[in-house]
Design goal:
The complex is a heterodimer of chains A (136) and B (380). Chain A is mostly beta strands and 136 residues long. Chain A has one helix at residues 14-21; strands at 26-30, 36-37, 52-56, 60-69, 83-90, 95-98, 113-122, 125-132. Chain A has one domain (14-132). The longest helix of chain A has 8 residues, at 14-21. Chain A is globular and about 45 Å long. Chain A starts with 13 loop residues before the first helix and ends with a strand. In chain A, 32% of the residues are buried. Chain B is an alpha/beta fold and 380 residues long. Chain B has a single domain (10-120, 213-379), classed as 3-Layer(aba) Sandwich (Peroxisomal Thiolase, Chain A, domain 1), CATH 3.40.47.10. Chain B has helices spanning 28-42, 63-69, 88-100, 146-161, 165-179, 194-199, 227-230, 261-273, 290-299, 308-313, 331-334, 341-352, and strands at residues 10-17, 52-56, 77-81, 106-114, 202-205, 207-208, 217-226, 238-245, 282-284, 364-368, 374-379. In chain B, the strands form two sheets. Chain B has a nine-stranded mixed β-sheet. A two-stranded antiparallel ribbon of chain B has the order 5-6. Chain B starts with 9 loop residues before the first strand and ends with a strand. Classes of the chains: A mainly beta (136), B alpha/beta (380). The interface between A and B is large, with 43 and 40 residues. Strand 4 of chain A pairs antiparallel with strand 5 (202-205) of chain B, so a sheet runs across the interface. The complex binds zinc ion (ZN). Residues 30, 32-33, 35, 44, 46-47, 49 of chain A line the site of zinc ion.
Chain lengths: 136, 380
Amino acid sequence: MPDFPTPLVTPDTAPFWKGCQAGQLLLQRCAACGALRYPPRPMCPQCTSKETGWVPASGRGTVYSYTVTHQALHPSLADKVPHLVILVELEEGVRITSNIVDCPPDQVRIGMPVEVVFHQVNPELTLPKFRPAGTA
Amino acid sequence: MAQNGLYKRAAIVGIGETEYSRDSGRSELTLALDAITAAVRDAGLAPKDIDGLLKFQVDANSEGEIAGCLGMDHLRFYGELGGAGTAGCGLVAHAAAAVATGLANNVVVYRAMNGRSGRRYGRGEVTMRGGSGLGAFTEPYGQLVPQQGLAMLARRHMHQYGTTSRQFGAVSVALRAHANLNPKATFYTTPLTLEDHQNSRYVVEPFRLFDCCLETDGACAVVVTTAERARDLPNTPAFVLSAGQCLPGYRGPLPDVTYANARTLAPGLFAGAGVTPQDINVAQIYDHFSAMVIFALEDYGFCKKGEGGPFVEEGNIQWPNGRLPVNTAGGHLSEAYLHVMNHMNEAVRQLRGASTAQVQDAELVLVDSGIGAGALILGR
Ligand SMILES: [Zn+2]
C-alpha cells in the first residue's frame, strides 16, 4: 500500500521539520508581539510581522476533537483502517493535527491528556504523534 | 430599506440541468454544453446572447472551449472561483455584480462533472494537496479527504452541544423524503428511515454512510441578467436580493470550530436583503454531510447555537409541515452532488412555483454554498 503523502518542505516550514528530527516540537513565536502560531507560516496573523523565532513546546495537550476513518477512502488508507486522526490542543494555546498511538480507537475521548512522541517515518522525515499522557 | 447595492438589480432567469447518473457516458464538456444550452433556452435567449461565463476553479472545462462550441466570438466577461465545490453562490454573486455594472449582459454560471465515473471527491482525487501547502500538516497523518476534516468539526459539535447521530439522521431522512417526490433525484425511488440511517456503516466516524453526499455525473447551469431585461423574459425572475462570501483566513489560535463562516456572513447577508431569518420561506443548504446542515441552520440564525439537532429532529426542515423546508429537491445527500448548482436550480423553481415539494407562496429563498463560504437570498 502507498504511504501517506510526505510534507513538501519549504523555507517557511523547514525549521519545524528539522525540530522534529531533533526530538523537539517547535512552534513559531512572533518576534514583534509574542503570539505563538501553528502550522508554520511566514507572517504573524496577529500583527503581520515577518520576524519570527522558534520555541520548543512542552508536547503536552488534550484531545480537542478526533475522527475514526473506517472506509479506505484513499488507497493509502487500505491497510490502516480503522484510522485515528486527532486534533490536539497544546497547553501553549495552539492546535495540531496528528495521530494517537498506543491507544485503541474506542478509548479516545475529547479532553483526554496526551503527550508528544516522535515517529521516524524515514531518515528524512519524523512526524510528531501523541500518546495518552503518562503511558511512558 | 435594503442596504445592499445589488438589491434586485440582477436575476436568475434561466435554469438547466442534465440527468443525474453514476456514468453519464459523455465528456464533461458535453455535459456542460447540455446544461448551458438548456438554461439559455429556458431563459428565452439564444447562445449568441450570452457574453459572460463564470466557472468553478475545479471544473475541468475551459472557458474558451465552451465559448467556441457555443459560437461566441466575444466572451467579454469570464473567470473562475476557488473554494472547490463551495464556489457556487459566490459565482452567482459575481455574475449579478457584472450585469448590474454593465460588464456583461447575460452571464452563465455552470458546474459539470463526471463526479462518479471520473475524478471522485470522496477519494481525494480532486482535493488532495500531495503534502503541499496546509496539506503538509494534515495529509502525512492520513487526513486526506474532505469527509475527515468535516467529521472533526461534527465530533466537536456533538461534544459541546450533545448533538447526536440520530439528529444527523433526521437531516438525511427529511432530505430523502424530498428526493422521493423528485423524479430527477438519484434516490427518487429509494426511501430512507432513521433505522436505515442508524444501521448504516461508519465511513468516517461520526459520519455514517447516509450522512455523506452522493457522487454524481451531471451538470447544472443558470443564466443571470439584469432586472430590467429579466422583466421582459418568459420566466418569473429570481431576483438576487443579497449576496455574500466569507473566507476567514484566521480566527485566532483557538477558534471554536462549531461556528462556521455563515455566522460571520449572516448579519450582512440578511441586512442586505432587508429581511430576517424568520422571513425566509425555504432554504437550499450545502449538504456535503448531514451535520453541516445543522451547523448552517444555527449559524444563519434559523435556530439558536447548539439547538440545530433538536430543530431538525422536531421536523422543522421537512416539507410540507416544517417551519423551514430545506433542500426540497433532495440536496447533495439524495438528489445529486453538483456543488450547490442543483440547489440553485431548486431555489429558482421554488420562486417560480415549480418545485416537486413546493412551499406555498415562496417569496424568499436562502441558498448556502458551504456553511457560509457563500450565500444568496433570492426573491420574487
Ligand atoms: Zn505578531
